Amino acid sequence: MTARVIDGNKIAAHIRVEVAAEVNSMVADGFRPGLAVVLAGRNPASEVYVRGKVKSSEEVGIYSEKHTPPETVSTAELLALVDELNHRDEIDGILVQLPLPRQVDAKKVLLAVDPAKDVDGFHPMNVGFLSTQRPGLVACTPAGVMEILKRSDIPIAGQEAVVVGRSDIVGKPVAMLLLNANATVTVCHSKTRDLPGVCRRADILIAAIGRAGMITPDFVKPNATVIDVGMNKVTDRSEFDRLFAGNQKREATFLAKGSTLVGDVHPDVAEVAGAITPVPGGVGPLTIAMLMANTVKAAKLRRASAVPETSST
Ligand code: NAP
Q: For residues 31 and 28, what is the distance between their CA atoms, to the nearest angstrom?
């Protein structure tokens, strides 16, 4: 058996089209949602992510602006910037790109973001809203995982869901969203006993670990849905062979770039699972699409307007 491969790019494109339509109707009503991205310092990976976020905003018609304080920025200076953005009415979403420079108290800065503009969904108030099922802003990657499941017609209610990983940004919120959608949820971590055995109970297995190809076929119940959140760069030849021996397309990328991107799920899992998300092209594209959806949602929630709810938020 070979799993159905879920196309995250296609799902993300649908969401972007829906968001663009909502932005159009908001503009017709007299306002354009706005996103402010704060990129402190010069982290090359963060620069790439932020470029993608700004470009995506432009594509769906969201006003965006980028703030680039220097590497030497202090906590007080960032707090002042966040405060200014909190008070500007045309800004609906504030995204502080992590990691922040070492001297900055990141928790303090994130806590200062107005929860109504917290499009990353990391503020404790939004985390509380999620766990008490109140309207709020949900972290983008976990929200994207739910969109993948829903839009791929994967049943959730009553299903056994196992989440491997308990981070604040992925594992915990994804577990809470699955619970809210009436799955029976187990959350695993580095101290979990018999991880393969627990994972084999899953109808829906979510891997958010950060370890290349750790989920092998023996972790997976036949026909289960496997969602791979992991993004790991493999540079080591023997690690590459463990994951992709015989895969000529990957071999070509690996030889050309000296690395390849791999999830937390071993490619052989596709022989056991019923449906699976690839890396790249699975969960990744949903993260930015959900940031766009969150910005529109923030604009709507803040204005408490009569614009109908999107199915993607
Ligand atoms: P994280 O904060 O490092 O958390 C990793 C989790 O995995 C922890 O809960 C850890 O357990 C658990 N874990 C580590 N080794 C384990 C093992 N051997 N057995 C069982 N559990 C283990 O990572 P994260 O920020 O959640 O990210 C997870 C992955 O998702 C990374 O690859 C990251 O790059 C990727 N990611 C992708 C996107 C996207 O847009 N696609 C967005 C965010 C993150 P403990 O709590 O016990 O340490």
A: 7
| Tokens read off for 234 | 């493999």
User: Using 50, 70 and 90 to split pLDDT, how confident is the model at 307?
Assistant: very low
Interval 147-157: pLDDT, tens: 999 999 999 99
User: Of these residues, 92, 118, 120, 228, which one is catalytic?
Assistant: 120
pTM for this model (two decimals)? 0.95
Phi, psi of 160 (to 5 degrees): -85, 115
Q: Who lines ligand 1 at CB under 6 A?
A: 141, 164-167, 169-171, 188-192, 195, 208-211, 229-232, 283-284, 287
Catalytic one of 92, 97, 117, 118: 97
Using pLDDT thresholds of 50, 70 and 90, give the confidence band for residue 305.
Answer: low
Spatial neighbors of 55 by CB under 8 A, at least 6 apart, are none
CA 274 to CA 264: how far, in whole Å? 17
What is the C-alpha to C-alpha distance for residues 35 and 65, in angstroms, rounded to an integer? 7
Structure tokens at 308: 């109908």
How many other CB atoms are found less than 10 A from the CB of residue 7?
Answer: 16
**C-alpha dist (Å) from residue 50 to 56, 106, 143, 264, 279:** 10, 18, 19, 24, 20
User: Token pair for residue 60?
Assistant: 């769906």
Give dist(CA 9, CA 3) in Å, integer.
18
pLDDT at 195 over 90: yes
Q: How far is the CA of 209 from the centre of ligand 1 (A)?
A: 3
Place of tokens 């790439």: 48
> Strands 160-164 and 204-207, how do they pair?
parallel
- Calpha distance 50→130 (Å, rounded): 26
CA distance 110 to 87: 16
Tell me how far the alpha carbon of residue 263 lies from the centroid of ligand 1, in angstroms.
11
Determine contact, residues 177/146, Cβ cutoff 8 Å: yes
Q: Which of 53, 221, 297, 300 is catalytic?
A: 53
